[in-house]
């Protein structure tokens, strides 16, 4: 079995990662692609948990701009993450990956309620655990939920999947001269406001000495390469 630098991993996927080329909702081809990438990691013997966002369906901040009360809007966003979690679970189980979907609030008909010890036991048994529903609280992002769950399950690293190959000193989509930063400390990421994750999530990772790797999800094999210790994307960690 391949020796891994990171054995237990928390992968943060945005809801937008599931859109693919269609602009809204869930792209079946993207679902299958993500499932296959996760399968490769499992074959290495890695333990994988996921936190999924809901921005492809509903963002709490967007809904509040429509005149919906912010707290209600955030709960709508949490429900969108459950929708995405169910889709991911289905795609993974079609290719033989055993999964468990856990939610931050009770939804007996579709998922387990999040219990830390149970989640860890699932990982030890080789199951992929999907955390949906954020933290169950309004005003808290799924980035912060990812940092929190990673700390709770004793993850070795947080992998933040994006559309670009790391963190840049400017938006590479708008500025072709933007320079990729291969390594940052937590404080540099916070002080420079580079939008790696929100400040609460980065601070939580810093307090728990949890490294963050920001990488391009659409480049096949990136997750596997990170677990093997190869230089991929941008590493955030250290003093």
Helix content: 25-40%
In CATH, what is the class? Alpha Beta
Low-confidence stretches: none
Radius of gyration (CA) equals: 17 Å
| Number of discrete helical segments | 8
Main sheet overview: 9 strands, mixed
The residue-averaged pLDDT reads 92
Across the major sheet, the strand order is 4-3-5-2-1-6-10-11-9
Q: SSE string, helix = H, strand = E?
A: EHEHHEEHEHEEEEHHEHE
User: Structural class, from secondary structure content?
Assistant: alpha/beta
Per CATH, the superfamily is Acetylglutamate kinase-like
Q: Quickly give the CATH architecture.
A: 3-Layer(aba) Sandwich
* DSSP strand tally: 11
Beta fraction of the residues? 15-25%
Q: Give the end-to-end Cα distance, rounded to a whole number of Å.
A: 33 Å
CATH topology: Carbamate kinase
User: How many separate structural domains?
Assistant: 1
Overall geometry: globular
Summed up, what is this model?
By secondary structure, the protein is of the alpha/beta class.
Q: What can you tell me about this protein's structure?
A:
By secondary structure, this protein is of the alpha/beta class. The chain has one domain (8-236): Carbamate kinase, CATH 3.40.1160.10. Helices cover 37% and strands 18% of the residues. The protein contains eight helices and eleven strands. A nine-stranded mixed sheet has the order 4-3-5-2-1-6-10-11-9, with helices on both faces. Strands 7-8 form a two-stranded antiparallel sheet. Helix 1 links the parallel strand 1 (8-13) and strand 2. Helix 5 packs parallel to helix 7. The chain starts with 7 loop residues before the first strand and ends with a strand. The mean pLDDT is 92.
């Amino acid at each position: 079995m391949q020796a891994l630098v990171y054995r237990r991993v928390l992968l943060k996927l945005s809801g937008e990662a599931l859109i693919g080329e269609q602009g809204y909702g869930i792209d079946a081809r993207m679902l299958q692609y993500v499932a296959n990438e996760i399968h490769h990691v499992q074959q290495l013997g890695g333990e994988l948990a996921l936190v999924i966002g809901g921005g492809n369906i509903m963002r709490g901040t967007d809904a509040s701009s429509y005149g919906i009360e912010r707290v209600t809007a955030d709960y709508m966003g949490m429900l969108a993450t459950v929708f995405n979690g169910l889709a991911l679970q289905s795609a993974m189980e079609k290719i033989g990956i055993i999964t468990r979907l856990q939610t931050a609030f009770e939804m007996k008909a579709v998922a387990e309620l999040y219990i830390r010890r149970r989640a860890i036991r699932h990982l030890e048994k080789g199951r992929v655990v999907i955390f949906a529903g954020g933290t169950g609280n309004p005003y808290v992002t799924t980035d912060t939920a990812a940092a929190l769950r990673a700390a709770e399950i004793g993850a070795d690293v947080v992998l933040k999947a994006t559309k670009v190959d790391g963190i840049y000193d400017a938006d590479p989509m708008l500025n072709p001269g933007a320079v990729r930063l291969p390594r940052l400390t937590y404080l540099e990421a916070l002080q420079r406001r580079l939008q790696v994750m929100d400040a609460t999530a980065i601070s939580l990772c810093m307090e728990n000495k949890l490294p963050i790797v920001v990488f391009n999800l659409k480049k096949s094999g990136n997750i596997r390469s990170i677990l093997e210790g190869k230089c991929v994307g941008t590493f955030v960690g250290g003093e």
